[in-house]
## 1
Amino acid sequence: VKKSNVVSSILGKHWQQAPQNAVGKAFAPTNIALCKYWGKRNQELNLPLTSSLSISLGNKGAFVELTRQDGEHDIVILNGQPVASDASFYKKLVNFLDLFRPQNAMRLRADIQSNIPIAAGLASSACGFASIAMALNDLFGWQLNTTELSILARLGSGSASRSIEPGFVEWQAGSREDGMDSYAVSLSETWPELCVGLLIVSEREKILSSREAMQRTVESSALYPAWPAKVSHDLVELKQAIANHDFALLGKAAESNATTMHATMLSAWPAIQYAVPETLLAMQTVWKLRSEGLALYFTQDAGPNIKLLFEKHNVATIQSHFPQVEILQPFKKGKHI
Amino acid sequence: VKKSNVVSSILGKHWQQAPQNAVGKAFAPTNIALCKYWGKRNQELNLPLTSSLSISLGNKGAFVELTRQDGEHDIVILNGQPVASDASFYKKLVNFLDLFRPQNAMRLRADIQSNIPIAAGLASSACGFASIAMALNDLFGWQLNTTELSILARLGSGSASRSIEPGFVEWQAGSREDGMDSYAVSLSETWPELCVGLLIVSEREKILSSREAMQRTVESSALYPAWPAKVSHDLVELKQAIANHDFALLGKAAESNATTMHATMLSAWPAIQYAVPETLLAMQTVWKLRSEGLALYFTQDAGPNIKLLFEKHNVATIQSHFPQVEILQPFKKGKHI
């Protein structure tokens, strides 16, 4: 099964349709996985070996405007700067856009405003591909539902499937070969007290893409075979924690899931270590504060940065210990960008 | 099965015997596991869940003199300093000595000279209990063989079973409930070119004993179930590497075994992280140098320090990149202490 088969199956007769609007606009939030997506069963379609569960980060994400572009080349603008056509981000984006113009007849200009550090482990590709999928839907007037958008976004980047909707989102792994049952669904629960604290310890491009890290881990880690059972366990705990607003359970399940994912990487060959010294120090501070009674947990993605998890009544304490933290309230209403 | 049953079974009628000599002396080398001992099937007897394989570090270790002591208390001297009777090291040592004086009638003075940092992940308890077992054998005149000494040393500390003999040593896990088939055997191969470089990044007492870390990992890590198969695989590779003096295979198997052991700890709850920032930096330097073609690997035990593995012809290069490294040649003949 190819990506184009999936797109054709979802768009049907609309696949060949011309844009209905002059401009397509969309915002997609980035998301942070509380239970990670780590390992693919299909590289082409970004089908995961396990389900995963994330929280969308409110107004942190990417806003896209898509317009038709005269000339021979697509134009990609990221935060006001043109992206060179030999950059890997440009190529990935054009490959994704190509899926939606089978006759290859139309060039596009994608103007992307992101308010999160690119490639610093903050799931920038998640909100990037999700916002592009949604903006295409707007531009062409396809009127797709969130399930269809989630599947299309997944073709760009697996975790983008979880960036279509706000709040808690579960990406169901599915089992079909064509992935038509592998999409994200929104959990109805909200948790206004919940806060995420971004600790950016390094804005450098990461040393290894999460795509490569994931593949190397699946292929070489002797511990990876135990990962799917860990995910199943953590998903049950996370849903229970969300249903009961049991913060200690949420924090424990999320942190333990993250450290276990990094453990699978450390056991790959060659070993993958995203932590930098500042990452270690931040983790140790979290553990120390928690041992002193503070309800503080963390998660970490395929990068050196740490995301703190805590509740609103602890904001002042967290700020006093982490002066550089950027605090987000995923359930707070507010303007994008 | 109790420790005293094992001692009685090995010493037989000699168990009640008075010392044959005025002083018992012994040296035992510390050892560094190339395939780690991580997880017990029996806490009382220190019986391991898997076999392990180590290299004894030549003249780095502990030298003990045991003498009878008048009065009511044992005396323990470590590097010239009396050890307080409420220190955990004192209690562990006295508990061990008690096994060998069932009527509890005789006090001992143990004068221990160690030339390795205590409790810094350099297996100080391994050479400590091995040297005590050997010194008791000398003091009492039991004339035990190395298999028996290995079993007795194991009762003090699991890895002490591997510190009775020099060179490459395999501790066979065994399967008997009384552990009489769980002891170390010396491999006959030597490898004079092999060097171990100690990178002491922290001499602080470690935050968590390896005993506790091991137990927490076995009980709480979702990845631990995959560890025994990893050990089986690495043991085959290590023995093949030793037989063929295949340094790249030895290094890869040892480093991968160590990072995988630390991965099982990172996936424990609460997570166990022995690395400090300097540990990370040293690991990254190793990976960078290796990517540039240098045959350099590392291993790490339950502590923050790194042990480099390389061959003699690279000594000058290693020293230029790690000015503080202490280089040991496990197979070099020489005086102890």
## 2
Amino acid sequence: MNFAPQVLQGNRLALARLLTQIENNTPAGRAALDELYGQTGRAHRIGVTGAPGTGKSSLVNQLALHYRRPPQGDPLRVAVVAVDPSSPFTGGAILGDRVRMRDLAGDPGVFIRSMASRGSLGGLAAATSGVVQALDAGGFDLILIETVGAGQAEVDIARLAHTTLVIEAPGLGDDIQAIKAGILEIADVLVINKADRPGVENTERSLRSMLQLGHPTAHVFQNHISKPGHEAALSTPPAADDGLQMWIPPIVRTVATEGLGIADLAAAIAQHRQHLQSSGELAQRELARLRSELELLLRETLVARWRERTPDEQFGGALERVARREISPWQAADELAQNC
Amino acid sequence: MNFAPQVLQGNRLALARLLTQIENNTPAGRAALDELYGQTGRAHRIGVTGAPGTGKSSLVNQLALHYRRPPQGDPLRVAVVAVDPSSPFTGGAILGDRVRMRDLAGDPGVFIRSMASRGSLGGLAAATSGVVQALDAGGFDLILIETVGAGQAEVDIARLAHTTLVIEAPGLGDDIQAIKAGILEIADVLVINKADRPGVENTERSLRSMLQLGHPTAHVFQNHISKPGHEAALSTPPAADDGLQMWIPPIVRTVATEGLGIADLAAAIAQHRQHLQSSGELAQRELARLRSELELLLRETLVARWRERTPDEQFGGALERVARREISPWQAADELAQNC
């Protein structure tokens, strides 16, 4: 069944069913997405990533609540897509839903969807892309895309976003440093959650010095990035220099479980969006996002086409020769790829 | 230059150069790997994975030291491949090398290689596979493949191993739970590192209950898995029931920074290897590993072939139509894939 018309009318049940079609990669889901695609491009997509233990889920909850009950203006329609690439076998993401439902259940302006990998990572990223398109066409103003962990998978999924939040927390161990180096380069806003914990100064200091490594000219704007933290000032003001058309990721402190710093975080996100629009970067980023998306879908399509054309026995035969060490896996891959 | 003959003679410099060729995916590297492939299959490959903050690197260090100075028997030749998929842009893995060199530098029986992603995750996994093959052909008895994080990337890389260690540590936050569910299914040995920290009992208890979820019959063997922990007994004996041809991942406690529990861990690894051999699972697992490897290389080959055949303008043209929302990304991917 094609749920596209009902989705455009705001039917939640139809939307839920379409998302299931998309997750299962059915022809009906594909057809609906093709139909809906012209209606996409309005939502602001916010990626949320960070290592385990940083409290991402609580933060996303609090952000969603904030947008539903804004201090001024109308409530916004918010969708949350929680992606768990770490759980290829069992649905680790499911758990998160239940916890969330307590605060947000019953609110028709909120839509929450958990996705766990069902096989390949590429398949998950492609499905996530489709789910986000459908939610965009469904009229949600903000789409929060949350990923567990901070590996390449998360980086790929973060590329679906306009604004990417990278969440840190004090005292998570030294390995975090290595992750930061890579993940920082995709951050538009840095969040130190659990900012009431000891070590928050150290975390902020190390983030700031990493920011300077990544943005060699950032020292010029040091005052903008963040003031040396006081325990009194739980969050530091987000900074952008639109005059110079350059965005330095602000550092925002939050305590999601207490709802502290959430308004500052929302303000930083709004400033980043503003920056994207005024600098013309939005169109550029949108194109980069579509490029990644197209590359991803192309990869999956190439593999699917190859699979259709190749009898299982052929793969099995090549595998056996590799196992007997007659040919190397690279030689076998070359041979098999001739089919395509 | 073809370094294969020198690698077979145990020339370290040639090996290092070959690994660079493999990382850069050069034709010379590919040719050398094809040549060396017949000499592979002897090393025991040990995957080491776990969330940031669990102290994986120290543990891998200590294991390598243990194998170099075994309480009995000859020292084994050990290679360490540290893979960092979390750092697609900067080489986060490099740092780890320096720290390691202090303990292991100058020992000709140890070879350490760090690899960071240089673009696609698939490319990194393919390169890692090649590096491990070369080290195997180079005569290393044990190859420790360490990955940062616990996402799908790490699961893919762990599939290259015969024995997979999953590292936990007490007090890393609740998100860990979600990760465990998926990662546990690839664990052959569970390690609770930093076992001198408070909360170790809770960590072991939750690991044990997850094990029971994953192995519904495991309660039968509960005594084998682990005894309720005493602070006095730092590690619990590894368990296997070879008579029933079933392996229940043992839980081993370590404090890598103090060198505690390392011998127990090595014993658990040896038992798992023994189990693989006596149960006939080794051949089966080897075939599963080669299958994953072949699938991975095939994916990369398909994409590379498509790229050779497709002018950049064609991709760019399709992308522009997607950006103007004339066609959906899925339609564009279908069109582009016709080329292959």
